[in-house]
Amino acid sequence: MLSAPKVSMLRLQATPTCNLNCAYCYIPENVRRQTGTMSTEVLETTLNRLINEDLLDDRIAISWHGAEPLAAGLGWYQDAFARVAKILGDKTVVAHVFQTNGVLINDDWCRFLKRHHAQIGVSMDGSEEQNAARVNWAGRPAFQSALRGIDRLNRHGIPWALLSVVTHATMCDPQAFIRFVRSTGCATPGLQGRGNQ
Prior knowledge:
Layout: E1 7-12, H1 29-32, H2 40-52, E2 56-64, H3 74-88, E3 93-100, H4 107-115, E4 119-123, H5 143-155, E5 161-166, H6 168-172, H7 174-184, E6 188-193
Parallel strand pairs: 1-2, 2-3, 3-4, 4-5, 5-6
Helix pairs in contact: 2-3
């Protein structure tokens, strides 16, 4: 009899909130405008269920994703990471992974990422023109704010992955996109397609 597959990746959404209003976002606007964070009860119940049902692999990546994970706040993650360590500490090796738009990254976040050996990916779509779909709720471009975030990561020596949505603007000037990627200092570039862009 085959054994049940084990969970090696757990994707969690700490908050529905997003500080950006990207033109192609698949999460409805009314959801991204909500505030609040995942309760500690939901987090602990999820982890304990994996343990109780013997679903944990010996290594697990917890991916903090969806909306803007950093909008949950550093204090929320300090508590969440402590709870994860307490529940899973002697049962599996945990790697935390963030996927962010980069706007909220500051020195405190960088120190937190380094202390916990957390991985991080930043979503940007290329040059300033190619990144035009990424705007804040007032309609202002997020490009320069995101660049400041990745500059912080680079200054702290944190390897980071770039995730770019390939749009019509990307394909109109692929050389500009390549120049942008080379200029960022990212450790790993990644591409994601999006229909009708």
